[in-house]
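FORM 7B: Structural annotation worksheet

SECTION A. Query
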Amino acid sequence: MTEAQRSPFHQSFYVANCMEILERFAWYGMYTLLALYITSPVSQGGLGLNQSEKGLIMGIVPFFLYLFPIVSGALADRYGYKRMFILSFIIMTPCYYLLGHIKDMGSFMAIFMLVALGAGIFKPVVTGTIGRTTDATNRGLGFGIFYMMVNIGGALGPLIAPIIQKKLGWDWVFTFAAIWIALNFIPVLFFYKEPSTQPTNKSFKQVMQEMQLVLGNGRLALLIFPLLIILVAYNANLIPSLGNFSAGWITLFLTMVLIVLSVLWDVFNLRTSKQNPLDIRPWYRQTMKIGNKAFMVYLLIMSGFWTVYLQLFITLPSFVRDFVDTGDLVNALHALGPWFYDVFAAINLDAIKEELLRLAPTYTVNATSGSLESARAAMASLDIRVPTAELSSALLQISNEPALASQYANTWAEKYRQINPGTLLGLDFLMIVFCQILISNLIKKWPVLPTLIAGTALVSFGLWFGSLAHGLVMGGTLVATSILIFATGEMIASPKSQEYVASFAPQDKVAMFMGYYFVALALGNLFGGLLSGWLYQTFAIDMSQPNMMWSIIGLLGLFTCLALYIFSKTMQHDIEKQQQLAEVN
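SECTION B. Predicted structure
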């Protein structure tokens, strides 16, 4: 297709992309460090929680973040995009700030949930703007540009946030996130115009009824949501053991009871409805119904992709901090020059000294392997990877002569310095910034589903390849390479999956359908967070087998590829019919 044949982009297309940069800057600046913040010791300004609690927070809150667009996308089609943008920024700005000043788990999750609400309002509106301001001639390029803008913001966050954290402290990471969001008031108030399709005059009830036609009815929701609540409650240790029955068995029992009761209720209502075919029943007397079956199956399969994808943020930072020696990358930065070394391998000498002074008396009193491992983990949180024998000797000496803490801090900062894992994640975003347009142009004529399979396979392989860095001298280089492989798969799969949804969504429901797309991300976040917590605790910590953890994640990716292949052979024709209808409308 020539440039003349391609439709020009609407002004709001460019404004939406600019707002996306700032919103992603805020989110990824916070989110790429969140796993480290949650598990860092309280003495260093972190929350001091364990891996399971980390998985719970990073699973549940983003789960709701990606569920909110189901409603907010529909509301945007009803009340207008600009109003929803403004509402999202009003919510997010103060809540990002408060995240850095809340230290107990309950309050942190509550404020984080409000951030998720604001982001959940923003997401379908910005993607809906891209969908409404593009057509068949420029949609592929438009979503490729949009995904590149996502990753410009995503690249800035992981590069700058670790520097802010080292120089100013954890609370400033969240303060700067609030500032980036606040800047978005300028483009939305002065430059953003509603896309050509105007807000509908449908009532809220009509909007909700349209949602049922796509997702399913209230009876189906009455089964799905309690099942998710049971899953979350089990992982939050809220389901107790009873007698000889463990919490796992109790959870399985509750799940089976809920499913059996739902099926029996459907059988009863189906029988009575046949006897009274003209009977109009309330929602709870209806049988469970799935709306757009092909679309819902697609979303369920894509939740597998996002479960694997999100391990880059939920699991990889902890893995790099705890199991990978990135000293080879530090040496490479040192060779490049003092600026690269000081900026991208930044370290806080005062924090190291204070931590040594805090650890030394405790270790002297309780010199066990467990306390030594805790001390090593505390130093790793400060990007210092000290051999256990040397750390043990140093702590004993510092307890007798505290002045040595400063000497050890300076020596170890040069000898055992590590790259902050959040900084490494910036490679993923930088790769996408520089290569997304090229990749989008190369794959623009590829069939969607084979493209998604190829991208998912690369994402899975990239994560598994990174597991080889455990215990190797060139560990940092291997992890960096794995992130680049991962990024290539992401560039192939992620924008194509969104373009696919926009291609068959009716024009007056684009934001609503893009909101539904986030159901896959919601489930991916929930499953990814809970899976990460369990895998990391079981295989990485308890069994000291992090490679097995990554192998399981890789197999999940391959299973997703198989599911996409089966979908392409059995349900693709249903999606094609919807695409034809969307083009006619």
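SECTION C. Observations
The first helix runs from residue 11 to 39. Residues 65 and 120 are 5 Å apart (CA to CA).

SECTION D. Sign-off
Analyst initials: ____
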